[in-house]
Amino acid sequence: MEMAVRVLTDSTSxxxxxxxxxxxISMVSLNLSFGNDSMREMDIDNGSFYQMMAERGIPTSSxxxxxxxxxxxLHIVESGDSLCGIFISAxxxxxxxxxxxxxxxxxxxxxxxxxxxxxxxxxxxxxGFAVIQAARAAKExxxxxxxxxxxxxNINRSRFLFIPDTLEYLKKGGRxxxxxxxxxxxxxxxxxxxxxxxxxxxxxxxxxxKNAVSxxxxxxxxxxxxxxxxxxVVQHINCLDEAKxxxxxxxEMLRVNIGIADIGPVIxxxxxxxxxxxAYYTQRDMR
Length: 287
Known about the structure:
Layout: E1 5-10, H1 17-23, E2 25-28, E3 31-34, E4 37-40, H2 46-56, E5 60-62, H3 66-78, E6 82-87, H4 95-109, E7 115-119, H5 124-139, H6 144-155, E8 158-163, H7 168-173, E9 190-196, E10 199-206, H8 209-227, E11 229-236, H9 240-254, E12 259-262, H10 265-271, E13 276-282
Parallel strand pairs: 1-2, 1-6, 6-7, 11-12
Antiparallel strand pairs: 3-4, 3-5, 8-9, 8-13, 9-10, 11-13
Helix pairs in contact: 3-4, 5-6
């Protein structure tokens, strides 16, 4: 039997169980701590988490345990498969460097193991799309190099735009990155944020959330006009109604079905409830 390629990602891709099963995607979990109370992100549902955060304040997050990464990788390698691991931006989390350490541990035990590690330079569904495209390539029987290339190609074609309801969470979490220019402003501004070169960056600033949503849609439309339409997903942090409204606007415009996915605890605690987002990729490179 020929060696198959398996794809491994982390929980900040927020890919649903159905997608993971269908495309044979493995996942390791980042972790959360409310004081001394720690849990894997994958072990708590979003509803309970956001309620817990409202009651107990903002928790801290941490990368997956090296043991969890090692065992997932070892399991795949010992099943006779090669592995492409695609993870959250190295600028946002230590997950990637931990994955590299776990890979080296596996290689010490199995010298011939084939393991490639990719920095998605993002998270949420921008990471998710890179993982999905890699897993589709793997299902088609592509080589490890081709699977890795499918992920990297998608990273050059995708964009993640999001509108936080408030800047409080980004401020408290210290994850404001290139968005630091937003702090200290006396006006109530609503930023449209994106992820560029692995970091949070400001795409533009407007005065109302309604205008921000329009500007976000407009940017997506420009990208699609220039580079062709791949897929689009609307994401949200605990505000499904707003997400549904946004999805129906986009559906009307593009005449394609638009999926809705929620954003879980680790990214949610840094950006905050009430956030709406669009992740999409195009047919040609945007970068």
